[in-house]
Amino acid sequence: MPALSQRITTLNGDGSDGWDVFYRARAMLDAGEDVTELTIGEHDIRTDPSILRAMHDSAMGGHTGYAIVPGVSALRDKVAARVQAQSGVPTTRDNVLVTPGGQAALFAAHMAVCSQGDAALIVDPYYATYPGTLRAAGAVPRAVPTRSAHGFLPQREALEAACDGAASLLINTPNNPTGAVYPRETLEMIADVVRNQDMWLISDEVYDVQVWDGTHLSPRAIPGMAERTLVIGSMSKSHAMTGSRIGWIVGPEAAIEALIDLATNTTYGVPGYIQDAAVFGLQSGLDLEAEVAAPFRRRREIAARVLAEQSAVRAIPAQGAMYVMLDVRATGLSGEAFANALLETHRIAVMPGESFGQSAAGHVRVAMTVEDARFEAALRQLCGFASGLAKAA
User: Can you tell me the mean pLDDT for 8-31?
Assistant: First the structure.
C-alpha cells in the first residue's frame, strides 16, 4: 500500500505508546483468565441511571440530528456557570466550546496555540496520551522533569530551563498519574513563568472534583492568566460518563471562535442527546458528583492503611484523582519490569511509571477502580510481592 503520513507514523516517537501492560492484561481477560485490572481510570460504577434516562428521553424526543457545533446553549451556559463558580472569573457561553471528551479538547487546544514545529511543554510524569496528542497537533513535546521527592510538583528552575522557544505549557491538577494537587504557590510560580515567556497555559482539570487533600485552584483564576489559559473539562470523571465522550474547552472568546472553526472542520459537534444528558448531570448538583467520587476517597484510605504496614513500597501522597503512585525501586526492578512480573505471577495489572515519562521510572500507578475488598486484597498481594523482591535485591 502507499506510505502512511509521517504525522501518523511518528505519534509515539521512538518507543511504545505506554499501554503494553494494559493490552496484555486485556488479552488475558479475553482468554478467560481472572485478572484484577488496576490500569485505566474507569469507574467500577456506571453512569447514574437518571442521566441515562435523560439521554434516552432526549434521543427519543428527536434530538438525534446535527447539534450546533459550539455546543447547545444550555450546556455551554451550565459549563460557564460551573467554571465561574469555581474560579470567580466571569465566564459566559462565548468562552465555552463543547468537545467529544477531554481528549479531543486537548488536541484542539494545542492545534489552536501551537504552530507546526513549535515546542509544547508537558510536566513529567504526564498522562500517557499527552506526547502523541501534541505530535498529532504538529507540536514537538518537551518534558519538564520533576522528582518524586518533591511530590512530582514542577520546580521553577526546571520549568524555566525548558521554556526556550516553547509556545505552550500543559499542566494537570489534580494530577494523573501522581495524584498531586498543585498548591497556590506552585500555580503562581507557573503563571509567573508563563507570563514572562509569553506562552499559553493549557490546564487539564478533568479531576477537579476529586480532591482529597488541599484545594483545587484553576490557574485561570490567577490575575493576568484568563487571557492566556485554556481549561480542559469533562463529564468523564466527575459523572462516570467516560463512554459518552463529552467535554469542553474554556478560554478567551477569540480563541473559542477559532476553535469553533476547527470543530466545524473536524468533529462537527457532539450528539445533542448526549449534551442534554450532560446538562441534566450538571443540574443534578454536587451531591451526585460526591457520590461518584466517594469510592476513590474510601479506597485511598484503604491504600494508606495497607501501605503503612510495610516498607518495600513507598506511596506518593495521593491528594486527588483516582490513582495511587507507588515507588517500587527497592525491588531493584523498573516500573515496567515490576508491572509485567506482577501480572505474570499474581494476575494483577497496574501501569508502569515509565508509561508516563522518565520522571516516574521505578514507580507504578495503581487505579483504585475495583470494589473495596478486591482492591485491598490486590494491594496486599502487590506489597507482599514487592517485599519478596526487595529482600532478594
Answer: 86
Say whether the peptide bond before residue 125 is cis (omega within 30 degrees of 0). Answer: yes
Q: Which domains does the chain have, with CATH numbers?
A: 6-46+287-392 (3.90.1150.10), 49-284 (3.40.640.10)
pLDDT band at 15 (very low <50, low <70, confident <90, very high): low
Q: What sign for the dihedral angle of Cα 107, 136, 350, 346?
A: positive
C-alpha cell read off for 111: 492545534
In terms of residues, how long is the chain? 393
Question: Is there a contact between 58 and 277 (Cβ–Cβ < 8 Å)?
Answer: yes
What is the SS3 assignment for 379?
helix
Cβ-based neighbour number of residue 128 at 10 Å: 21
Asked if 326 contacts 314 with a C-beta cutoff of 8 angstroms, the reply is yes
**89 CB burial (10 A radius; 0-12, 13-18, 19+):** middle
> Rg for the chain (alpha carbons), in Å?
21
Predicted TM-score (pTM) of this structure = 0.95
- The one-character DSSP state at 213 is S
pLDDT at 324: 97
Structure confidence at residue 19 (pLDDT): 84
Whole-number pLDDT of residue 17: 62
Q: What is the DSSP string of 277-333?
A: HHHHHHHT-HHHHHHHHHHHHHHHHHHHHHHHT-SSSEEEP--BSSEEEEE-GGGT-
Give dist(CA 266, CA 248) in Å, integer. Answer: 15
Nearest CA to 73 among 265, 272, 227, 244? 272
Tell me the pLDDT tens digit for each residue of 196-226: 999 999 999 999 999 999 999 999 999 999 9
CB atoms within 10 A of CB 4: 9
